# Entry
Amino acid sequence: MLELGTLLAGPFCGQLLGDLGAEVIKIESPGQGDPMRVWGRQKAGEPSLWWPVIGRNKKAITLDLRQAEGQALLVELAAKSDFLLENFRPGTLEKWNLGWERLHAVNPRLIMIRVSGYGQTGPYAARAGFGAIGEAMGGLRYVVGDPGSPPSRVGISIGDSLAATFACLGALAALHHRDRTGEGQVVDSAIYEAVLGMMESLVTEYDKTGYIRERTGAILPNVAPSNVYPTSDGLVLIAANQDTVFRRLCEAMGDAALADDARYANHQARGARQAELDALIGRWTAERTTSAVLGLMEQAGVPAGQIYRAPEMLADPHFAAREAIVAVPHPQFGTIRMQNVVPKLSATPGGVRSPSPALGEHNDAIYRDLLGLAPERYAALQAARVI
# Structure
């Protein structure tokens, strides 16, 4: 697989496929590289702590796609590849004479994965489109945050990651199709559409009832009880919005009759009195410690938990037992901890097989060993800063 993208919307798709076993060859501009190599929080004078995650399980080569010789080399690489992944602004590869028609002609089995803000077609296709804009256009930004505040953002680059995840899904579906027919195709993943695809019944509700979802903070309207509640020493999240689960919550609270109270006896009734019910539960939790509430919820079979940060994740025995976080040997950090591969496969599990590579680390292995470039040509391309 050739990864031409930068930042997150394309490279996260490459990470997902690499985690599951694909050989990913990341192509970067000579002397420059992906901005993710320097983005993210880091100690002064030390490398990025974002790059080790997004760059794992990849090989890295340099190639200037603006030069004709660089374009010719990419065509040679594409002829030997199953996937080509890119997240340039639509039209960029075509400007370099590296569009679908040319690459498909040299390799009919190639699957081209294209991630962009607005997709490859339509009146907005050529616009610059970052994840934040896709999140806003796809409907997510409007519903995130407290109802008394302006629209907020999720604390991660969720639009980019969603588009990359859908791109990965499309790539695997295209691979299945190719296995049956021998033909590759284009996977067109737009950030705004990936976000829109996660918006549940938002459009349908407006279409049929005129209802517009608003920001609701920690709750979903009419889904109760499901909220963050105070304890004597912190906070706890309880989700008991199903009838049978609510009954178990009431029993755990020592008020079994509450489940039969007409005000709370079914989903619709609880939704109509959501604030009232949350206040009732909050008064009960506030009189107990977090650990006491969680112990009672576990005994009763009521979904509950704490709101984790990184320290809680690293200390949790369940994370450890499932190896949700792994320690990866790294040439610059010694060992670095990061999230493991998702999902877990029983027969062909993925894994972090190699750390993030240095810029151009695999030039020799790819250009000389895979493509078989003659030493004279290889040296000339280096001299001209094509690679």
